[in-house]
Amino acid sequence: MAIVATNLKRGQCINYKGELGIVLGLEHRTPGKGNALIMATIRSFNSGKTKDIRFASSDKVEIVQSDRQKLEFSYSDQTGYHFMDTTSYDTITFQEEFIAESKDLLIDGLEVEVLFVDGKPVSIELPSNIELEVTESAPGVKGDTATAATKEAVVETGLRVQVPLFIGPGDKIKVSSEDKKYVGRA
Predict the structure, then answer these.
(1) One domain for residues 59 and 104
(2) What secondary structure does DSSP assign to 98-136, as a single string?
(3) The domain containing residue 13 runs over which residues?
């Protein structure tokens, strides 16, 4: 199905020059001279890279049918990462290549959204912040809350994060799923 570029929306899957991708952002531009333009930021499913594409307002864009499913992470083993469909209780297994960047943030019971195109999973979206428990860190010193100094801590998934000096083992912290950095205490 093809639509006019002005009708594109964030989150839609498109086929652009034979490559499948998802629209991450849109900006309508009207230059002083000439026709209006639509600048779309698109992330490719094949390469994972984002790029800006300029469409004329009259260009046709091919929309790809997609399906979003909420799944709950159950566990991982040598066969892959296992998720449960919370409506049908079916288990879906993904290989490590698909999970890639997200594996350091997966904890039991974490709800994620998986995008399927033509029945194949193409991307996984985690919540913006994830609560994780600190398992290892150097001890903090009383009064360390006044400076912006940080130290390395290891969380329950094995991820290493820079945290403020007052965070210790057993503390729950929020970590951004986008850049895997400390956001705050949980």
Answers:
(1) no
(2) HHGGGGGG--TT-EEEEEEETTEEEEEE--SEEEEEEEE
(3) 2-63
Please report the beta strands in 8-155, taking only residues with DSSP state E, as ranges in sequence order: 13-16, 19-29, 37-44, 50-56, 60-63, 66-77, 80-85, 91-94, 111-117, 120-125, 129-137, 150-155
Q: Is the pTM of this model over 0.85?
A: no
Domains: count for the chain: 3
Give me 172's structure tokens.
Answer: 């729950």
pLDDT at residue 144 above 60? no
Rounded Cα gap, residues 149 and 164, in angstroms? 6
- C-alpha span between 10 and 16 (Å, rounded): 15
Type and span of the H or E element at 3: strand 2-4
